[in-house]
# Entry
Amino acid sequence: QKEVEQNSGPLSVPEGAIASLNCTYSDRGSQSFFWYRQYSGKSPELIMFIYSNGDKEDGRFTAQLNKASQYVSLLIRDSQPSDSATYLCAVSTGRRALTFGSGTRLQVQP
Amino acid sequence: DGGITQSPKYLFRKEGQNVTLSCEQNLNHDAMYWYRQDPGQGLRLIYYSQIVNDFQKGDIAEGYSVSREKKESFPLTVTSAQKNPTAFYLCASTEAGGRETQYFGPGTRLLVL
# Structure
């Protein structure tokens, strides 16, 4: 079992719709959870981080964390073509570096 | 402006050659990291350093070496022992190891001639 799992996609949504990206993790000691966006050929850029159970909202983005289910998600409201990218879920146990999932490719159709 | 710089943007390696990738940060971050990314894959940890003059192996350290002589700098050498070096290499840093957010440099793409 991979430590951090994501559906590779592509996830295709129409412009203006809500995109829902999901991630599961195996280490119950995980403390911090991050979502990065990566455009093709570029380095990852931080979208959001979340530490506590529940929802965290930042503009069009909402991160959701459920530690009991070992599940973290990212919702993108009013999706735009510029949101088309690969979204990487990353998890930290606080002991060393982040562990990344392989990413979900999102395509927003105009 | 504060940030992380990596050079070169593209690097070509001949068989049997060692090459060094540069990573510099002026964020005053304590911890620095090297990741490798293969096409369609996530990031895999090569080495990390949480303090000057100390570093630890990550998940795929074989064929790589690092040094951390200065807080600002964490160069990665891809040695001839790394038989499949073609990948996108990403350097990151954070204020302290673990919980804090990692910020990434622009990356170096390594290609084998």
